[in-house]
Design goal:
single chain; alpha/beta; two-stranded antiparallel sheet; 12 helices; about 15% strand; binds iron/sulfur cluster; binds zinc ion
Length: about 300
């Protein structure tokens, strides 16, 4: 029986049973608490962009931020989606996303790799010998989201990263000895105070992936459950399976990874504080090197 109302439980949270209604309440309250705990939305943050794909995380995020926006009239949301050009995948998630935004009267902007860079991701994957699909996809998507959010004069970019994603990123950087990248993680990303970089916030930071999945199914959101065809071959997928195995054997592993990381994050940020970035010589976007990673990928097509 549910801990609060004695209805039929749908999940156990920290060993306590919760019914559908109480779980939805718990989830939405936790999003608000996360925003407050990490001070993700300041009083002066009026125009916010939300990076969306149409998957479970971004739809849950968009729904919850829209709920806040409807209460707080001064918060304007613009959803930004990137169409990477992944056949039989992105077209499906974008279809559900368009419907969701229309039903909820949320502004949606879609930008495509093809139009912005001249190639779809599928085409770039076939051309390149050097880069892995997820590496191309992630670099180009981050670049475009930042550029477009800045051009639209939006203050922050909210992303649907959950606790599982963060735990994976922490371990991936550890395994690859890339602590400079670790310094850019956290509930509010970025180590630079540079207006050319739009600050990224993660309101689902403390939410487990299984909690997001359950929330989406209980709310009966219409989302495409198809996985990206490139996801299986990714490094992240191996780390994901590894952490999931550990979590099964040792409950609380994911929380421990993120909690211990948050304790040392201020020290890492201090040590890896970047000097001022330059502008990429080719595209003029901000970059830590002469030529940014996006231009390097496009050149090595
Ligand atoms: Fe892009 Fe890789 Fe994610 Fe597919 S799995 S959308 S290729 S980052
Ligand atoms: Zn209940
Ligand atoms: Zn560039």
């Amino acid at each position: 029986m549910c801990k609060f109302c004695k209805n039929k439980p749908v999940i156990f949270i920290s060993g306590e049973p919760l019914c559908k209604r109480c779980f939805i309440h718990y989830f939405e309250k936790k999003v608000l608490k996360t925003i407050r705990k990490f001070d993700l939305l300041k009083k002066t943050d009026f125009d916010i962009s939300v990076a969306v794909s149409g998957g479970k995380d971004s739809i849950s995020l968009l729904y919850n931020l829209n709920k806040i926006a409807l209460r707080k009239r001064k918060l304007n949301l613009t959803a930004i989606a990137i169409d990477e050009g992944i056949k039989n995948y992105r077209n499906l998630t974008l279809k559900t996303l368009k419907k969701f935004c229309k039903d909820n009267k949320i502004k949606l902007k879609i930008y495509s790799f093809k139009k912005e860079f001249g190639y779809t991701l599928d085409e770039l994957v076939k051309k390149t010998k050097i880069y892995k699909p997820c590496s191309i996809c992630g670099t180009l998507r981050r670049y475009l989201l930042n550029k477009k959010a800045r051009e639209l004069k939006l203050k922050k970019l909210a992303t649907g990263h959950n606790l599982d994603d963060e735990a994976q990123s922490i371990l991936i950087n550890q395994f690859k000895n890339d602590i400079a990248r670790t310094a850019r993680l956290g509930p509010e990303t970025g180590i630079l105070d540079d207006s050319r970089f739009i600050k990224r916030i993660k309101p689902l930071y403390l939410m487990l992936e299984k909690e997001v999945s359950l929330y989406v199914s209980l709310k009966e959101f219409d989302i495409s459950c198809k996985a990206c065809p490139y996801s299986k071959e990714s490094y992240r997928n191996s780390v994901k399976n590894f952490i999931n195995d550990f979590e099964k054997k040792y409950l609380g592993t994911k929380y421990s990874i993120v909690k211990s990381f948050l304790e040392i994050l201020p020290l890492i940020k201090k040590d890896y504080k970047q000097s001022k970035t330059k502008n990429c010589k080719k595209c003029k976007e901000p970059s830590s090197e002469e030529i940014c990673n996006t231009c390097k990928i496009l050149k090595n097509e």
